[in-house]
Structure formats: C-alpha cells, structure tokens
Amino acid sequence: MSAPHALYFHIPFCSHRCAYCDFNTYAGQEALIPAYMQALLTEVDVVAASREESLPARSVFFGGGTPSLVPTRLLSSVIEKVRQCYTLEPAAEVSLEANPGTVSAQGLQELRQAGFNRLSFGVQSANPFELKMLERTHGFGEVIQSVQWARQAGFDNLNLDLIYGLPEQTLEHWQNSVRRIVALGPEHVSMYALTLEHGTPFGRWAQKGLLPLPDGDLAAEMYDWAGDYLAGQGYEQYEISNWARPGRECRHNLQYWRNLPYLGFGAGAHGYAGGVRYANVLRIKTYIERCESADRRTFDFPLSPATVNQHRNTPREDMQETLLTSLRLTREGIAEGRFREQFGLGLGEAFPKEIERLTRRGLLEWQASTLRLTPQARMLSNQVFVEFVGE
Ligand code: SF4
Fold this sequence. Notes:
By secondary structure, the protein is α/β, with parallel strands linked by helices. It has 2 domains: 5-256, TIM Barrel, CATH 3.20.20; 316-389, Arc Repressor Mutant, subunit A (Orthogonal Bundle). It is built from 15 helices and 17 strands. It has helices at 33-49, 72-85, 105-113, 128-133, 140-152, 171-182, 201-207, 216-232, 251-257, 284-292, 315-327, 336-343, 347-350, 352-360, 381-389; strands at 5-11, 13-14, 26-27, 56-64, 87-98, 118-124, 158-164, 188-193, 236-239, 242-244, 262-265, 270-273, 276-280, 307-312, 334-335, 364-367, 370-373. A 9-stranded mixed beta sheet has the order 9-10-8-7-6-5-4-1-11, with helices on both faces. Strands 12-13-14 form a 3-stranded antiparallel beta sheet, with no helix packed on it. A 3-stranded antiparallel beta sheet has the order 15-17-16. Strand 7, helix 6 (171-182) and strand 8 (188-193) form a beta-alpha-beta unit. Helix 1 (33-49) runs parallel beside helix 2 (72-85), helix 1 crosses helix 10 and helix 3 (105-113) packs across helix 5 (140-152). The chain is globular and about 55 Å long. Iron/sulfur cluster binds next to loops.
C-alpha cells in the first residue's frame, strides 16, 4: 500500500493583482474558469491512470490565486473526480483559500455541503490604510462577516493569515491586527513577513527607496510579540509562520514540511511524488491546451501533459530537502530515528560540519534525539538553510 499523498489544486485567477504578490495568478481571465476546471479534471484522470492502484489521499487543498472566485459546482466536480480516482481518507482535510469579500453566506454553505471542511482567509491586516496599500479589495468588516458566515455554515476549522513588516507599520498597528483576528476565534493563524519580490511593484518601489519599511529589529519585535500573545491565547507554534489550537495544525502543509509526497495540479503547480519533483506550465491558456490535447496518452507517474520541468532527486538531495523542510517545524524538528530509518545514516553523519557550526552559533539545538531550530533562529532560518544547501 502506498503512503498517503496530499493533493494540491492551483487556481490562478484573481480579480486584481496585489502590488506585493508574485504568485502565479492572473487578473481579468475569469472567462477561462470553466475550461480551466475541465482541464484540471483531465489532469487528475491522466495522473491517476498512470498507477494501477488507487493512491490514498490525506488532504486536498485549493490554493491560488483566489479559489473562492470559482463557482462551487465546478469546485465540487473536482472533489468528485478526486473521490473517483483516489482513496480519500475518511478524515481527509479539504481546504479552500478564500478572500474575504469574495464569499457569501449561501456560497459557504454550498462549499461545506460539497465536502470542504477547512477555510483559509487571506486577511493580511485589520488596518484600513495597510489593506489599501497592499491593494487588497476587502475591509476588515468583510473579514468579520466572512468568519460569521463560515461558522453558520458549519466550518469549525478556520485559518486567518496576516502579514507583518509592512511599510510604515508600527508595533501598535500590528498588535491591533493580531488582537482583532484572535478575537474572531480562528483555530489556526499564519503570519508571514512581507517579502519584496523581484518584478512586483513593491519590489520596484523598494529598489527606488519609495517604501518606508520597518527595520529588521522592529520586524523581529512584531514576530516575537505576536508569538507570545498567541501562546497566551492558547495557540501553539508548530512551524516558523504557523500557530494552531492543539490538534488543528494544517495537515496538508504538514505533508510538505515532513517532505512527504504530494501531487500538484493546475497551472504553475509543483509536485513531489515517486522521488520526482516536477512543475507545470505557468500560463492558463497553455495549461488548458496541453490538457485538452492529452488524448489519453500515458505518462509516467506523477507527470501529466502540463509538466514542463521534472527532476529525479538524488539521495543527497532527498536528505537535504527532508532536513530543510523538517527544520521549519519548530516543535517537531527532525528526529534522528526517522532520518536514519529513511536514509540509513544519522544526521550527524550526513551533515557533520554544518550541524556542528550551527549549534555552536546557537541556531540549532538537540533535544533528546531531535534536531530543531533554536527560538532565536526562527527569524534567521534562511541563514541556517543556506548553510546546508551551500555545501
Ligand atoms: S489576492 Fe492573493 S493571490 Fe491574488 S494577487 Fe492578491 S495576494 Fe496575490
């Protein structure tokens, strides 16, 4: 019996491109939604046909983009196809990313009936000035309304996302945003530092010195304060950017962080299964054309007509990736026993110099036989990761 897989569906449609965003998503192409969703069904079929047995699936996640722009009946058809082609575990987590302002009371009820059991709302801030600067199209009133409707529809597993380190953001503004989302009682909170991506308007403005960003010390203070506040409110940090009520960790994302297999469907989706990392074509129209012309040819698992890049990992790459993704798990880290069982050698044998250097610098620590980031390394995790990959 194969290991359970996670299934990711990328929905690359947005009503507007936000100035900081570099995700593979497009505004003004909503007319392509029906054809795109049909292409997703084809891709699921093709990948499933490359296996003799039906793969077990632990989670289904629709991310984007703005999946909540897609009519529920089209999202349902994908869930239905997943049930036909995979063995969905009875307790499978089925998540949808949604933008407040793109949902309705009835729409959320339909989603719940269609089998979705988790929603992730992109809130980003409770401050009207910050939301405007991010070019988000919702206000905090719509967040409150969306959460109420989600609860009425029976969703008992909600995530709310925030971004910190925004231009002109003060500690006080940030604290207010965190308090206001916690007051809504989500089961899960994600907090990401603003990153300035090359090629985005934010990236260009920052290069010209036009974005008055908080310095590193203030951003660290925001992160530390929020972590303490969330802990005091009963949330446990389990990943660098994620907190949850006990037992409400995101099962889908845990699959990535434990470096376990997942299939990615849709334009620009990535996957890792059968020892192969792969990526799909980015553009929506090309994705649809490729799936339409698939002509039921057979592909080697886990590839599909939309695949444009593939790479079979070497054992060394698998070790590196397992270590890097697992170190993101702040409590769980990486257990010596699991690593040895998977790769036939211990962490200290695979990465002797790196682990020694990083523990000496106070960035990694052993707790019993588990290797973890130290609390002070959580905001410096890139320094840790570079050490392992640069080797
Ligand atoms: S709504 Fe989300 S995915 Fe869409 S452009 Fe804005 S940040 Fe990017």
